[in-house]
Amino acid sequence: MRMMNPADLPDTIPLFPLPGALLLPRARLPLQLFEPRYLQMFEDVLKTPQRLIGMVQPLRTVDGDDKLHTVGCAGRVTQFSETEDGRYMMTLTGVSRFEIAQEVTGFSAYRNADVMWSAFGRDLGKAETDAGFDRPKFMNLLKKFFDAEELRTDWDGLKEAETEMLINTLSMLCPFEPEEKQALLEAPTLAARRETLTTLIEFSLRGGTAEETLQ
């Protein structure tokens, strides 16, 4: 996927609220679309030059309001196929995080928002590095977590993965609560995300809850 410049990013994007679905810059998220409103969103997005969809977490509220977290991540549609029964299988490649300025009301069946990109300029650059990353120690911790959760993975692939791809992929795939995923999304740097990820894994191994972890 070609690099985007800040000037390429639109002021308004469609939103796809999906609990627990995390997208990060330069990472890939496979999705399946079947609801009519999102099928319409997908078809509309393909007509735009950027082909961006904003992934955002619904906000858990006590009154049941249909609110969203203010920070999400926009991805470009880079692959898609249509099934015989009318669903779309697509892949979003993360471009940049954004902050919702305000939702746009209109006649669309799906949600749209005016967004701001300025706080996330590093997302459009090259892959981040993490000078303080102790890979052997982290992999040992990860092995304990995967064993406890009865998860399988390609350990050889993880050992060879670039640091950003490793941290971001695990952040997206590990079975964390939506609020925990949001904390990983909002981490300002790769090092901060790795530290958050490590904390979440350690709390999980000790039987901690999401609320305890994020206090």
From TrEMBL:
Coiled coil: none
Segments traversing the membrane: none
Family matches, as Pfam families: LON_substr_bdg
InterPro entries the UniProt entry points to: Lon_prtase_N, Lon_prtase_N_sf, PUA-like_sf
Span of domain Lon N-terminal: 13-205
Protein name: Lon N-terminal domain-containing protein
